Amino acid sequence: MGIRMRPKDWAYGAEFCQEDLPYLYRMANIIRQQPEDNNKLLESYYEKCQKRVNDHKPVITIGNKNLEFIQVVKSDDIVVTTGLQHYLNLILGTVSTRWRYIGYGSGGTTANPSTGDSQLNSEYSTRIDTSTLGWARVAGLKMMFGGIVGESISASPLNEMGVFNASSGGIMLNHNHFNQIALTRTIGKSAFILSSVYQLAPKA
Questions:
Q1: Contact, 145 vs 128, CB < 8 A?
Q2: Are strands 71-77 and 134-139 parallel, antiparallel or unpaired?
Q3: Where do the structural domains in the chain lie, given as residue ranges?
Q4: Sign for the pseudo-dihedral over CA of 159, 164, 166, 169
Q5: How far is residue 185 from each of residues 29, 80, 111, 139, measured CA to CA in Å?
Q6: Cβ neighbours of residue 21 closer than 8 Å, sequence gap 6 or more
């Protein structure tokens, strides 16, 4: 009997001080420029996000600057049906439009994601282009996405995010919902990094 696979999906929403923003852009650029088989910086970032979720106080070192998290929230959700089908079509080579954009919104905390979702509950107007303001990386059966929401962008509260293959409309890969603690901030005082990990894993 062959190995059965199932999709796993989780996301982090991290808040940083506004003065750290140039270093966040630098980190994202380093991640984008690294060879496909080198994801050490990115894996370290996710590891430190998880440590912050667990009430530790890790720092990210970029050059000679140590960056501290203000807060990190985590979401564990399943991929949506249309996103999974598009992912399989990419593997089969029947489609070519890859995941590139991160949408985010203020969807209410009672509106939990569903596998049948095709859009966010209440999306803000502008999606993040991961090719310039984040990253989109593939490592085996794992896809990793991240995008920076600058301090001047009016997006608070932030309860939900999803990865898309178009700057508007398009196919949504996942619908991550921070339904326990939403990200909130004072506009102009802090920035967010929204990141998502999608992986096919063996099913027990």
A1: no
A2: unpaired
A3: 11-202
A4: negative
A5: 25, 29, 21, 33
A6: 148, 150, 151, 191
User: Are 196 and 11 in contact, with CB atoms under 8 Å apart?
Assistant: yes
For the CA atoms of 70, 17, 178, 106, what is the dihedral angle to 10 degrees? 150
* Closest to 159 in 3D by CA, of 202, 117, 122, 201: 122
Reported in sequence order, the residue ranges of 18-70 that DSSP labels E, i.e. its strands, are 59-62, 65-68
Is-above-0.85 flag for pTM?
Answer: yes
Question: DSSP string covering 103-119, please?
Answer: EEE---TT----TT--S
67 pLDDT exceeds 60?
yes
Whether the CB-CB separation of 15 and 185 falls below 8 Å is answered with yes
Question: In the predicted model, is pLDDT for residue 148 greater than 80?
Answer: yes
Is residue 1 over pLDDT 50? no
Residue 66 confidence (pLDDT) above 60: yes
Q: What is the pLDDT of residue 195?
A: 96
